[in-house]
Q: What sequence folds into this?
């Protein structure tokens, strides 16, 4: 292929890849991360409160997820679960695995953030007659979230890129679409470079969102001191 | 009838006795200073009375009701705390809330008072401690003395029957101690019932009505403030006062 033809190919494939990114990669990331956050807060709060039994189950869950490769988890659900009589569509399997996987990592982040809030904060809450849930909601969680935002965004950006692994379980996301084009044209470098650029655009958007979030999230006066 | 009565309170940490059978009677309007060297159990006594620590044994009579300090229900604890205030050594202002929100949080969340009314009370309390104009400042933007005054306003907001102060000036720079003590002096003059764990001898001498001197988990000597400072009975008390005077 001449340089002209390669340029032509890149121009033609760009909107296709971008659309696949917007229609599959982004929803997969957003849906999975939303579930992951819910899991993370629940698991972190259970561990923070040292709820018997549940606390141990949470530790086992985090231990398993952190100790096994993401791709193995994807294969277990997508290829393994049908043998138990539960056939899971690729996208669903990806959402399940990414939610559980990211949930475990974010739970550790949240737990550390909760534990970073000094014990005197809760004590002051007790002393004005608040109950546990009120203290969590109005005092501990807001402070913990402020601490957790940067590492949570790290996880989110990681996951955005990790969704490319879903190509392995037939989910036609951006990377899968790129593989299809290279399979037809054998132009690996231009296409994968292109896909890298689109991931970079998405990641950069998230980084900008992080900055806005950190600014907007109550900085407790630290930036106005 | 006494407002608060503590009988035979015991507390040990890892088998080490910190409180070994302390009794305490507080009448309405009393300002009781608890003195004593570090590790004498003063702070633990306050924390047990407000259930921040669970005593191993002991009885509390508060507002005419008797409670077993080692086995009080969550509901009773919450009810007792709603009628008392607590001021910490290191203020413990809610870091994610402004000065005003620190004062009003208990009103809106615990007492379900509407926001407008809570804000009105909050501003009034901040004014009482000389913190008007700082309503929208976050704790990090305030000096230690200012934070402690907001903390006092937070304790006052609940209209408590008694306020416990746990070494309220010990974390402050010397030049900031006065502003906090002045607020406390004013409260005492207004008739607020207070128990103050402190190292400030002048405060104990000038403001408190009673003094309790503790050491090793026991009360060594107690009496009216005047008597305690002018005519201490125990040799250990005299020694302690000599040491403090040198300081």
A:
């Amino acid at each position: 292929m001449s340089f002209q033809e390669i340029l032509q190919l890149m121009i033609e494939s760009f909107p296709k890849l971008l659309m696949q990114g917007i229609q599959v990669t982004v929803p997969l990331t957003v849906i999975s991360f939303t579930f992951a956050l819910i899991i993370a807060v629940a698991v972190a709060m259970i561990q923070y409160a040292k709820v018997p039994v549940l606390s141990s189950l949470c530790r086992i869950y985090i231990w398993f997820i952190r100790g096994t490769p993401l791709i193995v988890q994807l294969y277990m659900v997508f290829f393994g679960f049908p043998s138990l009589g539960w056939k899971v569509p690729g996208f669903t399997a990806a959402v399940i695995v990414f939610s559980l996987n990211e949930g475990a990592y974010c739970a550790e982040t949240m737990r550390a953030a909760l534990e970073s809030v000094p014990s005197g904060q809760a004590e002051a809450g007790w002393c004005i007659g608040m109950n546990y849930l009120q203290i969590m909601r109005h005092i501990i969680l807001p402070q913990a979230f402020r601490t957790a935002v940067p590492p949570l965004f790290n996880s989110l950006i990681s996951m955005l890129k990790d969704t490319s692994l879903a190509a392995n379980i037939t989910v036609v996301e951006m990377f899968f679409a790129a593989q299809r084009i290279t399979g037809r044209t054998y132009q690996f470098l231009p296409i994968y470079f292109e896909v890298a650029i689109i991931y970079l655009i998405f990641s950069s958007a998230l980084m900008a969102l992080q900055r806005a979030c950190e600014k907007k999230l109550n900085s407790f006066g630290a930036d106005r001191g | 009838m006494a407002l608060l009565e503590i009988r035979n309170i015991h507390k040990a940490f890892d088998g080490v006795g910190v409180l070994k059978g302390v009794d305490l009677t507080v009448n309405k309007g009393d300002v009781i200073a608890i003195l004593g060297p570090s590790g004498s159990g003063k702070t633990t006594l306050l924390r047990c009375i407000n259930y921040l620590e669970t005593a191993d044994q002991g009885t509390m009579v508060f507002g005419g009701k008797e409670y077993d300090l080692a086995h009080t229900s969550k509901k009773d604890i919450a009810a007792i705390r709603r009628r008392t205030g607590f001021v910490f050594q290191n203020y413990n202002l809610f870091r994610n809330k402004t000065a005003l929100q620190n004062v009003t949080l208990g009103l809106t969340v615990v007492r379900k008072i509407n926001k407008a009314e809570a804000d009105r009370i909050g501003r009034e309390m901040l004014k009482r401690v000389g913190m008007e104009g700082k309503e929208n400042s976050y704790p990090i933007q305030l000096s230690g003395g200012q934070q402690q005054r907001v903390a006092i306003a937070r304790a006052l907001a609940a209209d408590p029957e008694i306020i416990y102060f746990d070494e309220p000036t010990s974390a402050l720079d010397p030049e900031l101690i006065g502003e906090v003590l002045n607020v406390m002096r004013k409260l005492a003059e207004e008739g607020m019932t207070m128990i103050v764990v402190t190292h400030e001898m002048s405060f104990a001498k000038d403001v408190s009505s009673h003094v309790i001197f503790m050491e090793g988990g026991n009360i060594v000597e107690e009496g009216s403030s005047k008597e305690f400072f002018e005519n201490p009975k125990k040799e250990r008390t005299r020694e302690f006062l000599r040491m403090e005077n040198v300081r």
Observations:
- Residues 3-224 of chain A form a domain with the MetI-like fold fold (CATH 1.10.3720.10).
- The interface with chain B takes residues 118, 120-121, 123-131, 134, 138-139, 142-143, 146, 218, 220-222, 224-225 of chain A (CB under 8 Å).
